[in-house]
């Protein structure tokens, strides 16, 4: 199945703060380490603020996060502080809230070292990133001399030295570890995780505050060794109203957008509650919503709202049934070119009542399509059926005589159907695939009569002329994950393959080459 | 830089500093007799003064103050015998490897005695150096104290370091004390026979404090003394309010429920830290509400919280999985879940019928939240739709979350309950 693509989170926060000078570096890309905040005009204006208004400023920037923001401000400063663990689902604003809070915390921290564990490939890279962020800026020219430690013990010693140099000045240093859960899947990740959670005891610096951000719950980090458990702050997912507030925040057409959201948000919210996925789904829908309106600045009244609602209804049904997909060239062209038969084309794009597109969204060569279909049939049908289905005349439906099935055979069919669901597609050797491929293409030669070939020799040999390319096509299909190679059979030693596509895609491919696939699929 | 810090903020800073300082937390132990602190101190002090070798293990669950006690003893001894002690600290997590540990020992010895340390020295050189240093220090009547934290991690593998250390202590001229600290109560059973025979079987057991001890500890930590650097009137007001809170029934209930879960000192410290941080800076005095709020934020149930955050489709998938488990299907995967889902939609004709891709995305969200997981370790060969999955939440948790969810459709609740009557 295709992986859903989630858009960059930068769209939300950078859209919310287009011109703010203190826009947080918390939105992606997060690779820039945070050095000491430079005392600019922004800092000077914040100096005279009372504690109450820093909380307000923070809450302005973090909608719906009142409790978490106050907790953060209270637990982070002043040093010394016990370590802190922020946990919650994805896209709940943990990193952003933390980095904003670190900006507003009083007294100002001396240094914030941020380790984005998701973008670091190995423990050594983590050590390097932290040590470079903590080394004094004067020695940045000599950073080439800084030897990156390999072992944890060397790292802790180097970290201690770096922190000793910094904390002599008496202000707090914050070490932030983002996406702590990815460490579990690293090589020797368990030891490194224990080390990171144990840093508070190992370092024993009162001026150092450790903060961990994780999307896994704290039960993933309980360990037997004597580390101190951090304080937890939980970030729940946003409710519908909070999501609506977030989306309405900076939108150029608030009234129109609010009427759109009152129609579109609740149904989409039943499918997913993650704000990034909702934004991705709502953007194209809003464009469709505004289509019938001539003047976008108009404030919609009831009749206009009803009209827009009727217009958006079918599109909404389609949007509910698809994950975010990159718009293909045909649909983009269609958007631009509205006048010429747009309605007819949109109907064909939406296809059946269920709203699933029936056309193949990508391009494949004809021989690759036939190879894919033969792989699908080889995985799906048991090998014993091949003789019946693919005889030389290609006639497949001569043998389908309906027999009265007894109860026992029906039960057996049910259990076999269950087994098929559980085990997934079967494997087949290469010879079987090629045999089925030849049978199918020999049958379909009649259908390809109208394919023009400039080369007369090709016309004579037909599909068999493509045989040497089949193995190349096979490796292409394997690389695109339509087929996968399984373990070879220990007795025969030949390679076995398995098809990865589901029935919908196979039907689409078959339809595009006008191949009657359903006649060949073995249905129990 | 900033305007004058208010008195309550100062008080908060003082209290937080106290809570994060293990020496202050356990300083009450110095005065009380017959604690592990006094026993350890007596042991080490007598070894130092009588110039003999010794070894001891401190065992106890985490957060009971073992490392703090060791630090206190070492501080005291450094004050009493300033020149007769040198301390080498090793940690089982960092110095697991024997070569690494030897290098660290050599490095710390060089640091203590102002010798230059060469990083290129091999492991044998380091071992020889350590043995020589032991002999030299013994002749000079200087005791070397080895503190081995996470002692059980040193006992993995071949235990070469432990053997060489304990063996070196057997010679007449050396004066060394080995203090092992571990969370495993059976750490001495992990030792090999030859190591165990060289180890004196002294163990100090640390247990969690009782309720009375905890009361005393809380008072010791939170009551401000006269010389805390704050105005005297504030201190008296603060102390009186605090004592009234301590005698409040709700506070006692708080402490009881905290101790029911985890009675170790570090848990109490976390609770007090949170309560102190929640102290209202405007009114300036602690209140019972901050303690109760700290308790509730420490007693969250993460899985129930995650269940409240799910969308309707994700709840459908969980209920389908639950129904499959109730039907006694030993293993099922995403395709079987989809089959169940479609049969439910056909039977009840709800408005929540979605395509396979959307359901698969919801399935992946559930995997990310670790509410379900794959049942096999077989790796990447199979597509995700065909790998067996299992629920990681109990049916009671699912039932409770369905009840608590206000937007949950009635059909879902019915589907969940109906299986009970099947």
Protein architecture, described:
The complex is a heterodimer of chains A (524) and B (422). With 524 residues, chain A is α/β, with parallel strands linked by helices. Among the domains of chain A are: 172 residues, 3-Layer(aba) Sandwich (Rossmann fold), CATH 3.40.50; 83 residues; 107 residues, Arc Repressor Mutant, subunit A, CATH 1.10.10. Chain A is 47% helix and 8% strand. Chain A has 22 helices and 8 strands. In chain A, the strands form 2 sheets. Chain A has a 5-stranded parallel β-sheet with strand order 2-3-4-1-5, with helices on both faces. In chain A, strands 6-8-7 form a 3-stranded antiparallel β-sheet. The longest helix of chain A has 19 residues. Chain A is extended. The N terminus of chain A is likely disordered. Chain B is flat and about 90 Å long. Chain B has 3 domains: 174 residues, P-loop containing nucleotide triphosphate hydrolases (Rossmann fold); 90 residues, no CATH class; 115 residues, Arc Repressor Mutant, subunit A (Orthogonal Bundle), CATH 1.10.10. The model of chain B has no long low-confidence stretch (mean pLDDT 86). In chain B, helix 1 runs antiparallel to helix 14, helix 4 packs parallel to helix 5 and helix 14 crosses helix 15. Chain B is built from 21 helices and 7 strands. By secondary structure, chain B is of the alpha/beta class. Helix content of chain B is 56%, strand content 9%. In chain B, the strands form 2 sheets. In chain B, strands 2-3-4-1-5 form a 5-stranded parallel β-sheet, with helices on both faces. In chain B, strands 6-7 form a two-stranded antiparallel sheet. The N and C termini of chain B lie far apart (71 Å). The interface between A and B is large, with 74 and 73 residues. Chain B: This is Origin of replication complex subunit 4. Chain B: Its main location: nucleus. Chain B: One of its GO terms (cellular component) is nuclear origin of replication recognition complex. Chain B: It holds the Pfam family ORC4_C. Chain B: GO terms for molecular function: ATP binding; ATP hydrolysis activity; DNA replication origin binding. Chain A: Belongs to the ORC5 family.
